[in-house]
Every structure is written in structure tokens, then in C-alpha cells.
Amino acid sequence: MLPGAVVGWDLSAALALGLALGVPPLAAGELLPIIEAVMVAKLNEQMEHSDGGKTG
Predict the structure, then answer these.
(1) pTM for the complete prediction?
(2) CA-based angle 42:26:13, to the nearest 5?
(3) What is the pLDDT of residues 6-48, one digit of tens each?
(4) Spatial contact of 40 and 2, defined as CB atoms under 8 Å apart
(5) Using a CB cutoff of 8 Å and minimum separation of 24, what contacts does 51-55 make?
(6) Quick check: helix, strand or coil at residue 5?
(7) Alpha-carbon distances, residue 15 vs 6, 7, 34, 40 (angstroms)
(8) At 2, is the secondary structure helix, strand, or coil?
(9) Given its phi and psi angles, is residue 20 left (phi above 0), alpha (psi -120 to 50 degrees) or beta?
(10) Which residues are bridge partners to 2 per DSSP?
């Protein structure tokens, strides 16, 4: 965990949610890491812009 940054998702929870929604576990296992990487990058980018570029 880093203050002011997103480093990842709880993939166990994401897999469980996918299973509950009927998403095949193989598909979720293949797609979630890719989706997570993009979302983490975009969330951190958005937080950086909303913070005025401040760090720490």
C-alpha cells in the first residue's frame, strides 16, 4: 500500500464476483489482470491530475 496511490485490486474478490455473475473462471483469470493494470494506471493518473501534480 502506498499513500496516495492505487497499487492493485483484491483479485480474489474480483474472481469471486465474476463467479457470482456467471463469468467462467478461466476467462476471469485471463482478463482480470489486464483490466486491473489499465484501471490502476488510469486511477493513479486521475488522482495525480486532481491533486495538482503534488506528490506525497
Answers:
(1) 0.69
(2) 55
(3) 888 899 999 999 999 999 999 999 999 999 999 999 989 988 8
(4) no
(5) 51/4, 55/4
(6) strand
(7) 19, 18, 13, 17
(8) strand
(9) alpha
(10) 5
* Residue 21 CB-half CA count within 13 A: 9
To which H or E segment does residue 20 belong?
A: helix 11-20
Q: What type of residue is 10?
A: D
**Other Cβ atoms within 10 Å of 28 Cβ, number:** 19
d(CA 21, CA 45): 29
Q: For residue 53, give the C-alpha cell.
A: 501534480
**All 3 cell numbers of residue 44?**
493513479
- Cβ proximity of 44 and 2 under 8 Å: no
